[in-house]
Fold each of these.
Amino acid sequence: MADTTPIRAGLRLPTGKLAGAGFGLAPIIAAVVLLLIVLAAIFAPQITPHDPIAQNPVLRLKPPSADFPLGTDAYGRDLLSRVIYGARISLIIGLGVTVLAVVLGLAIGLVSGFFRVADAIVMRIMDGLMAMPSVLLAIAIVSLFGASIWTVMAAITIPEIPRVVRLVRSIVLSAREEPYVEAALSLGTSMPRILWRHLMPNTFAPLTVQATYVCASAILTEAILSFLGAGVSTETPTWGNIMAEARIYFQLKPSLILWPGLALSLCILSINLLGDAARDVLDPRMGKRKD
Amino acid sequence: MAEVLNVENLRVAVDAPGGAEVVRGISLTISEGETVCLVGESGSGKSVTSLATMGLLPKGSLKPVGGAIRLEGEDLLACSAARLRDLRATRMSMIFQEPMTALNPVMKVGDQITEVLKAHTKLSNAECHAKVMDMLTQVGLPDVARIAGSYPHQLSGGQRQRIMIAMALVLEPKLLIADEPTTALDVTTQKQILFLIKELQEKHGTAVLFITHDMGVVSEIAHRVYVMNRGDMVESAPVDTLLRSPREEYTRKLLSAVPSLTPRAARSFASDRTVLQVTELVKRYGGGGFLSKSPETLAANDVNFTLRAGRTLGIVGESGSGKSTVARCVMRLIDPSAGGIRVAGHDIATLSRTGMKPYRKKLQMVFQDPYRSLNPRITVAESIMEGPVNYGTPRAKARARAEELLELVGLPRTAAARYPHQFSGGQRQRIAIARALAMEPDLLVADEAVSALDVSVQAQVLDLLAEVQERMGIAILFITHDLRVAAQICDDVAVMRRGEVVEIGDTATVLGNPRHEYTRALLEAAPGRHWDFAAFAPVSAA
């Protein structure tokens, strides 16, 4: 009856080969770049040549020199040190938001995919959240509760949650029709246990991919908030607020915007490339079913 | 007669360095006006052979590595892609198992046939239209103007397959390849489609390569038969010779595995204990929506039956007859709209989820698709242990029991630690049965439990069910569309049509001497009903 077996078995081979031999240079370069950024952020106190917030009015807007490789800003602070410290905030926000959004989104999505009543209510709230521009929502939350790294994290997390919820919900909706879920039901397995054991594992692969996009988007949103002055307080250097401060000196010294901007772009590009590579490997259509 | 297709020593291998050969040097020929059946179980390479002929092997995964395929003398393996594309519509064409996926869902079916004509002929619009209408009439569709203006989803499965046939034959190809074209259809529709293919073939003199796993279909339409097994050609012979005196052991085994349509001898009553009593069961779908009133469908209407311990009741019927609905109501996977379901004297039809818990133990189910009924991420042992652990059995004890059960269903104890994907379809179905038995149920509901399996595996699983029943004295509610299977395993049979039981009684009476016209129509449509495959002889006129 199912006579496609040999063909399907054949189709799988090239994907296996693909995954084994690597999928091009881009993801490897991306991984190296991201690793460098992470290491720089962790060891920032050891590798930075200067204190990122020590001001020195005498050394304002200096061009690159041996002492200040990227020059100094309007307050005489070392730009290189500030960009390296800026990576800390970006990565903390990126990681924090990803963990929060995935954990909360997963929980809400599982419940909403499995219980019809909850679904109706939860999804309308999610639709409402998605109807608001995420940056505006974040600005509103930050101005309501004051700017700190925690409020910024919360403010970026909330608009990200619906994207995770919708993904998880759609997976649960299709997985719960699988006969093995009905089998579990007839074995007397309780609802929470069915969710935990039979439905949740289906979401892991697509969630891993989604998480990378959430992470990239969170880092970008944080930079936007900082740039608009609604982010972490300006005492802490972030890529966004370095660029914001540099805006008025743009014609005088464009490199003040160039370097943090470049760091931001490289970071986000790397994460997205890794996400694409993860998707190629984990794509549910390439299937776990070895039948 | 002129030879249309000549496949010589064809070898197809996985497209990778050192890739395994999936078709190993097979040869076959088809002449004008001849129907040749290619039979084999899954993985035999019969579909690969047909795809190779059409030049449709999936690129980058399978490729022909030797031999020749000649269509009227032209070697297809040496053809360019453009030449093949041209040949595919004009000289050879193919129809597939699932017409819904083979048709474009967003295009009217009439336009889809016109497209074929436009691509390969220089006919004017009016001529095209006339030809399409003529073809639709030829494939026996009613009201052709309306059908031509319909989208695939608006047609029934049988109608869609007729459209596929019309599309395949509109350019009058020399060769028609039919890859399991009736497998997804009900028996009565299957009969019509088989008849249609035969009729058109006689009219146009087309050579037909018919790929199937169903010996019944073979006996109905084939002139000659080729039997394949794991990429090798086992034997070939005119159909009558093959069915009467197969030369090879494999063919003999394949034929013997086909269940007989003659009901098995009645068994004596083992027990009088009633396990399941269904009274006036009704299941409605649709109806009172919140804002709209959609028409309501009666998926099951006034269904009554009783099942005693150690007995098997079969529910047979075509798709949409409500047989699965009844099974799922009994299992309380869906809620019945009205009526009673009594298990061991208690009505469970209206129990809540928690109220059901004590009764779930008594009812267990084996599902149709063995590839989807086991969670691929947990080990076989975990799957089997799940039920008992839910009811408080200590894990160590449940584990030991799981291994015992695996042995009972004919698998090694070591299977417990492995994952479902490491097993074949038949083995997985055994695991699913072991999982159901772990609960020590009174009633086993088998919903098309052997329909997805090859005949030889099917016979083994049926034997297993019979053995388990004898040993444990459980009752089995066996849902199937296959009258042959029902005849061999059931003590009683209920025939369902459009939600209603039209006939119920012991198997010998219902299938041997049917009273209702629908039962008779079903029996009449069963392919190969005049042939007793296991006996290698026609059914004696009894």
Amino acid sequence: MTFATPNLVPAYPEIFLLVALSALLIADLFISESKRFLTYAYAQLALVGTAGFLLIGSLGQVVTTFNGSFVDDPMARTLKMISVLTVSFVLAYSRDYIQSRGLFKGEFFVLILFALLGIMVMISANHFLVLYLGLELLSLSLASLIALQRDSSVATEAAMKYFVLAALASGMLLYGLSMIYGATGTLQMAEVANVIAQGNADPGILVLGLVFMVAGLSFKLGVVPFHMWVPDVYEGAPTAVTLFVSTAPKIAGFAFFMRLLAGAMGPMIADWQSMLIIVSVLSMLVGNVTAIAQTNLKRMLAYSTIAHMGFLLLGILSGTLGGYAAAMFYVVTYVLTSLAAFGLILLMSREGFEADQLNDLKGLNKRSPWYAFLMLLIMISMAGIPVSAGFFAKLSVLSAALDAGLTWLVVVAVLMSLIGAFYYLRVVKLMYMDEPEDDTPIVGESDHRLLLSINALTLLALGIIPQPLIDLCTASIAQSLRG
Amino acid sequence: MTAHHLLSLSIWVPILAGILVLALGRDSNPGLTRGVALVGALLGFLVTLPLYTGFINASAAMQFEEAYRWIPAFNITYHLGIDGISLWFVLLNSFMTILVVIAGWIVIEKRQAQYMAAFLIMSGLINGVFVSLDAILFYVFFEAMLIPMYLIIGVWGGPRRVYASIKFFLYTLLGSLLMLAAFIYLYFEAGESFEILKFQAVALPLGVQILIFIAFFMSFAVKVPMWPVHTWLPDAHVEAPTGGSVILAAITLKIGAYGFLRFNLPITPDASHALAGTMITLSLIAVVYIGLVALVQQDMKKLVAYSSISHMGFVTLGIFLFNPMGMEGGLLQMISHGFISGAMFLCIGVLYDRMHTRQIADYGGVANTMPKFATFMVLFSMANAGLPGTSGFIGEFIVVLGAIQVNFWYATLAATTLVLGAAYTLWMVKRVIFGEVANDHVAALKDISGREFLFLIILALLVLGMGLYPKLFSEPMHASVLQLIEQASTPKF
């Protein structure tokens, strides 16, 4: 029996990141409190290096390694690249905030990089266990991140809630996966799809397994009825962590759905489509309606996220290449928007002031017309009103759903986005039509301000020229799922 | 600058001017803000003039077309063009923007740069709505326009401005989202194209047509507004600043009627015929019932707002008569209503700036202290009541003529507006302008300034000019109207 060394090239980015963050873990012990900036710079460099590795190798091809349990395809490359970029923004937006709250420690960076590693592994997983490994890496890192502010009881409660519910969801997912394994006799996703397509598996067990699987997936994405943790975590976690939770893991969530449902369970589309329809409609309804009643900005954005994930599912459940590409476009747009929204909250907050209440936005136009304008762009994009990236994201998923013959679902979705428009508009109203409650000028690091402006203006630019991003998503999906 | 880019210029000149105003404008230097805004508005109007002079009246085809690929993934094009139906709206909109800038010259004190910029940007977006030949491009302009209007009402409006602005936004958004769903449906039916002209060629069964008609109807009826979805309009008007009311009444209401002409009739002709009775009934309710509602208003702006709804009822009536007279009358009525309602709101603005009240009861005998103003106000009121010789008469008269060809009772009911319109408008004039000087505030009123005289005289000349020589306005419409009626009368299945 010979032991062949697996082809490591497809996993270079992950390997590099792991090495870099392990080195960071050790190096940080020797960095004094006053030189902590070095840790930040090192983390950013690690991200640049990871991004560099993502650019080398066979672009545009589907390569599997580790006996087919790890796949490197264009979709994975694109999603990983966006995740790395997102995390880089997250770190830049957070620096000031965590510094002023005594969280500027090595652990923050290490945990975020570990979570990123988990995300990247999930994105490339082609085997149930690899997927699970990535998922747990992400979940555990997130739970610790949420609890990072040890003396905050809200944060601890949120972390506890997340941890317990995440464990439950993982359990359900594993249970589902084990049934699929029992029915098909393999954990390799491509083979699972083959066995199901040939009709060699007991459909009863498959459907039962699928139900558990969808429940676990829905929890991870934070969609109704498995959404309870989302508002608490968003509100309870330090805003810098909320920023992270609301962005990069959603990309992983999308990949998760793609690999498991579109990939492994592709032949059972009729079954998971009907499940996702229910989840999607409920998410849009509950998310949008509950968001109206919120006074806490972070909580409102949490419910808005739930609604957005419902929209995202519209693309996935269409079950076509166009639908998957639309969902990918949607998730990227959503991540950009959410990044900018929390980036702005972080910019407005300062020592002893969180800026997490809706009323803290009052009169922003008087305090700073530029940031009010950026927030206007962000809200327009969230509401899916032109001219913004959000509009074309909405258009893409709606047309995918209509193409799949789900006309009634499209009508429901547009009505839900009307409800959504109400609370986004309320933010605009607070900024433009109310008087400010405090006149403290908005100050922030210049890199934070610059990146935020670029970030929000990208939303506008994508609202005028969405084609490049649409092309990227369409090409990634088409090249990855063809083979 | 070639003739090929005139439509693009009509969109982008005001928008760029608006951005420039935002960039340069400082509250410390209002002169510069106004100057840039006025130059921007004038330039915006100047680039639309060649559209009129270069327009070929005999042709029903789209003119001044521009087409570029915009988003190939959805086959969305940047396709612009105008015909005899849209021509006037572009001119009217660009023209009214100048008046709005002048009207806000010194009246707006807070954040003047943002105010002027919002109007300029909106002006460009509205031109975009009228000249788009791609449904998504149309939709983008249609929705994007809501944001500046929302801010205009909400930031510079009256006491209940926030309520009014949100009501305005959500009402209009509801309709437009359903329209978006219809667009996506038609996209697949038209072979993956968002071209409006291709939508018009799609053959659809009656059931589908009716659903699409309803989706469009939700969107456009709210804009017009038709009874019973009109309730946002009085609120929005009352709370909006003068300029906002002028643009709302003179321009944005027309977008609804334009939508019926561009989308409902040609895309769903059979549904339009099937539902014509309902549409005519709703129109007549607007004409008669809303006319009665206007009669009892205590607030001048509300009165003119209801009068607008009633007059727009004429427009929708004309459209769904399916004869050239009705449709052309409706179009003329829209242009005329643009001038008259704009003028009425500007007049009320003149009074409001001095007295800070719009209640009819607070006035009386204004003619004694403001004779020049009273002359204009009486003229515009007469026009609003449809006095022959003013533009208000032409449109209403032709629509009534068109209606009588279809049904005697339609015409009779529609004609009551001439009585009702005269009743509510002249009664208001009597109470506000004539009689004894009511109180010390009225006694202390100063007559209009040169700036106010300027915008009122321009509108007065237009109202009279159109009333005396309507041919100038109706000529470019003929070919397009005839073609549209033919399209709307050809069954699609």
Amino acid sequence: MAVQDATSEVLVDTLERSLRNRRIAKHVGIFLTLTLLWELGSRMGWLDPLFYPRPSNIIRSFWLIYFQNANVWFHLYSTISLVIIGWVLGSMLGIGLGALVGFNTVIRRFLKPYVIVLEATPRIAVAPLLIAALGFGVNSKLAIIMLVCFFAPFINTLSGVINVNEERLELFRSMRASKTQILRKLVLPDAIPVIMAGERLALTAALSGALVAEFIQRDKGIGSLILVYTRNLNMASAFACIFTLTIIGFLIFKGMEKLDHYIAYWKYEGGRERMSSKRKRTMVEP
Amino acid sequence: MVKHEQSMAAAGDVVVSGLNVGKTFAAGTVVALENANFDIKRGSFVSLVGPSGCGKSTLLRLVSGLIEPTSGEIEVHGTPVNGPRADISMMFQKATLLDWRTSLENVLLPTEINGTPSKADKNRALDLLKLVGLEDFAFSFPAQLSGGMQQRVALARLLQTGADILLLDEPFGALDEFTREHLNTELMRIVAEVRATAIFVTHNITEAIFLADQVVVMTSRPGRMAKIINVDLERPRPLSIQTSVEFNKLVEDVRETLGAV
């Protein structure tokens, strides 16, 4: 029986794998066909090569900006470091203020109309004003990124803190928990998954914010590089930059997913299993 | 009220008592509980049974100190109740476990709130998990447990405080019939084992009688205690007792009280 189960398991495994391989093959096939059509369209003159550069040229541009000229690294470093610093600062501010406002009903009532007004205003519209106030350079760029990063964590933390399960709250009260204990052992851990969702939105927003700041300031960063290439009608290199951003965006998405699995482990089966055996080990060993 | 006068003689043995307890909500427009008088003896199991709106949960929450009475007074161990206290432990209809904690950590929560859990506290929690039949699930998270198992963890947590008065607000009401019956039998065994006094709220007449030494029948609008019925069935009680003649007489008595008012 056990042997049979094991064999059938292996069988199902191989079947699943071969199905997945076939699916991947299909996707790759479609992608290659589309790319080839694009290449062909450019070569045949159906697409204006000025605005729609050939895929082969884009690949060549990748090689140029990354290796031959290697000029992209400087800008990449500038953008990524700004995004990370702005994201951390902006979202920390958002989480902190969100928690503060969530816990204090008086502040909450007072701030609510302003929050609604600010939420309805596109944050990026304020970018030129921030540059006017803080001048060109790192400060205003950071300020713009922080601004676009602030809201999602702020709103999510606020709602996470406010929407505490009434029954759990009653449980804590019946156990005579202090306010600090309710905060540390119930409210904050309970809000972690929704705060993480806010952080994910914020990091994506940070990248867009950085690009806008770089479009305006045109000194350095991937955004200013795209601007320069487009003005010089070097569309292949502009596309190479855009695809670079695609890869960064994808990495951000995956990275945040990993982080969420790590921090909000109880939301995922794998995370629960990992922590379960970890707790067991730490309980038994010492 | 009858009950109150009856048991005055054994006052030393009374652990929970209420005198003219009343509770109104919405600035006096909703009378949740009116003029409740009761004495609960040490080690007894009391069921509060009645339709929704009869004030049974309100009465339980008044005893727990989570809410304050509008009139009258409740005493536990001879001191008036004015807030949640250490000698009372409470369990709710939902397991209300913390998703990010393992079973063991959930059971340890009340100990953590009182201070840092010692090695002995941890062993006690493990023993309690064994008592509720979950020794193999001490390191599982709530999402890895069934509804019935989650309530078992909540039961272990209830006992972890060491309080000798247990308040149970329809603890198995959200579970299926079979699981509930099973857990009721377990509950009876465990409460007897730890020698606690239990107040159990339910709207299930059979369950109320099966578990209790005394059944308080409550009626609604306004919520009041209509009758206290003594259940003189032998312990331990097998599930089959529910089909006996004595048992069904008690059921009828409860039904009549509920229907008559």
Amino acid sequence: MIEINDDIYQALFEDWGGKATSEQTKLIQTWLQESPEHKEWYNRLYHLYCKVNYAEKYDRVDVEKAKEKILSYLSAQKRRKMWWHRVLAWSGSAAAVLTAVWLFVHKPASPEPAEPLMAAKVIGEQADVTLILGNGQRVAVQKDSSFMLKIDGMSVKQTSGEGLRYTMDQNSTQTTTPETVEYNIVKVPRGSEYSLTLADGTKIWLNSETELKYPVRFIGKTRDVKIVGEGYFEVAKDSLCPFIVHSGEVKTQVLGTSFNVKAYSDDKVREITLVSGKVRINANGEQTELLPGWQATWDEARQQLNHQQVDVKPIISWTTGMFDFVDMPLEELTVQLSRWYDVDFFFTNESIKTIRFTGAVKRSNTLKYMLDFVSITSDVHYEVKDRTVCLYSVK
Amino acid sequence: MQNSDADILKWLKSNNPKGMAALFDRYYRPLVLFADQYLHDIPWAEDIVQEQFVKFWENELFAGLQEKTLSSFLFTITKNACINAMERRSIQTEELEAGLHVAAEEEATELDENTVLAVRKALKQLPERTRAVVCCVICDSHSYAEAAEKLNISINTVKTSLRKGMKELRGILGTHNDLIFLLLCKYKLSN
């Protein structure tokens, strides 16, 4: 057997443990170069060192905890990435169009106080979506249900998590394009979200308190849909047949692009923000084309069309399950919250309406969480009574 | 039951969520312990490995990998990440020479519950003080002086105990290859 002197032995162990002095490192190096057997022996001993070291530290590594942490991080990233991929990496077969349109919506006569509102409750997931067929028949759609309808030579299939999908019926005998087509309407109530895929493959995500009208099949030279509320459009590309989103007086024509349209009910300004590609906007005769990162605004009262550069990310944050607000006045923030949590806000003090907030908060958080966020970061306090949230200044 | 590298890659490439979960089950602990050989700090090692996993997934680094290259690829990116991390903290990085990387990787890949049980059983067979010295130096990365102080013994006792302990452990845990090697050494020396 090779005899190893104690100094070498000590140097090896201290080196492997990260504790060697530079003399010890030098000692090892000289010794290793003396003979190949030293090297071989050294390797063997290190194998054993690792085996013992690993075995003893085995339980110090919490695999499950790390797995949970990283997998949940990745799935959150993935959701984000998917959206951005879809939006930004458009070019292939689908044009992604984002529209977020807030139009003036009549306030429904104060909603039935179905149950006392607990501030800790998220209402988001339960509300029913309504599908209105061409003949006026209403179908209540439970989001986690599955069903299939036949309309006008089309199959309409609802699957849990996927939403509605319109596809051409395989057995359909219609070979000629009919001149008329049936329109359907999907209504998404407050506190809900929904998605659907149209006959041309265009996928649309609808935000709360939104109504979308669309043909079950697309015929003619353009593909026209009409939206009241807020929606994210991923438009299937068809350069011969442009896709047009109608929102009040504003028509947004897809020229192969992704964009966001938003219009507030109170000031009646509609905003169209381009994410990538190109859109042409026609607002009651006024026309403009946008470059990515630019936003057009249509002031309905003044009949004025303007444009400026903006940060598009917060504008479409709702599609990734976030409330993302940058320097947003409280008044504007409460509009978003009221739609998602199905509550009304009441300001007891006008001055607090203009307090500005910046943050990114998951929509899956409770209303209480959001309100606490507001009250902790400002001098605004809140009180929840039935479905009304009173905000007041504590100063 | 751990999944094969072929399955892990298949799932990763087909965007199946099982892929990352299986990757964690198979490689997380070996890579952390391997990284710990460089860093001597388990939480730091965990951090580095997690960062590599995220990169691995987000940049789809698995796309070009084959069943046979997955393991060495993971160990290589982990090693490089450790070296970079140490350089950032201005820690000398020459301590583990190339051959050691291979040994540390081999032991990490072979690590399983059976090995752990075998090692623990072997350690239990050592006299108490010998075991304490072995654990102190090998598992807690103490220097001889620190071990001596901690266990309240002389440095010479640390030296002899460790040597004795390693010899016994080798005797108990020694592999087939070890035996061949020992015979070879004896043979060479006797010539």
